């Protein structure tokens, strides 16, 4: 019986993980599809994305209502229509906190996503997804500055590998682009905008981490609140943006307005397929966040990161036939470096293997202590290290 339950849980988590990769990939591909339809409205697309996140708030409230109703059904005992026993200890309650604490992260999300959508319009979907990996670098740097986190050596190594991978991806876009219709300056600008946007995203992630941990806010509720604030604020800001004119590189609308909300609705009316693409953007971001929260809750945040790497590969694979992107073999190297950097930064596979197999075999105590500190085993004394080595060697001898 227990084995059947474990098997069911495994299948459930496998489905959720697959669903996360699928919806995450669909979100980026749908956003690029919108661009391919000559719908150049990054701010409007961001509003749609926020609406998708706002749907997470609706889902959370529905789930809370269901839990509340189930609790009442379990705990209420009626006699002549009157309740005489009610256990209040496990009553489902909404978290008590000031919802406006998520206003700053929402503003960061609003700015970062808008910039990213502008960048996506100027570059390829695969490069867009790969360059988003730079958020690790900025998150690490900001964590040390604002959260007073101490980054171990392996995290700096991971950040370095990610930076190297980003360099390979960015340069390959320029060097190996053979499409005469592509504007190299636009591609460079788009890539830079995506990387710059990750600074804002990193600020958002650091602030989210602080608030979610401090106030114990359910992630789904946090995402929904950010979506609500972002949707409302950006909807109002889109009106003054109508009167701001920008260079043609950043706007393909007739009057080159920063955001022409009226022309956006006109295009949707004239080309209904745009509405379908936007619908996919909204639905995919909502389900992606829901699946991501589920993966983080039942597995781990590092598992979510690994799945995000898979998503990058899926987007790249589908972008080539769908959007006519060039297959650039060098980008495989960039993707490999990005993935390797993410694995190293999150201490997956390589770090545990090195500590388990390599570190105990190093006889020089100073080198061993130095490498132990680099691998996140700081605080070991020489006697600790000797004991660690001795125990490890004894276990190796027993295995042999």
Automatic annotation (TrEMBL):
Stretches assigned to the Sugar phosphate transporter domain: 83-346
Name of a matching Pfam family: TPT
A single cellular component GO annotation: membrane
Keyword Chloroplast: no
Compartment annotation: Membrane
Primary localization: membrane
Record-annotated membrane-spanning stretches: 12-31, 43-66, 156-174, 186-207, 219-244, 273-293, 330-354
Statement: the UniProt record of this protein carries the keyword Transmembrane helix: yes
First and last residue of the signal peptide: none
Keywords, sorted A to Z: Membrane, Transmembrane, Transmembrane helix
Membrane topology: Multi-pass membrane protein
Protein name per UniProt: Sugar phosphate transporter domain-containing protein
Species annotation: Meloidogyne enterolobii (Root-knot nematode worm)
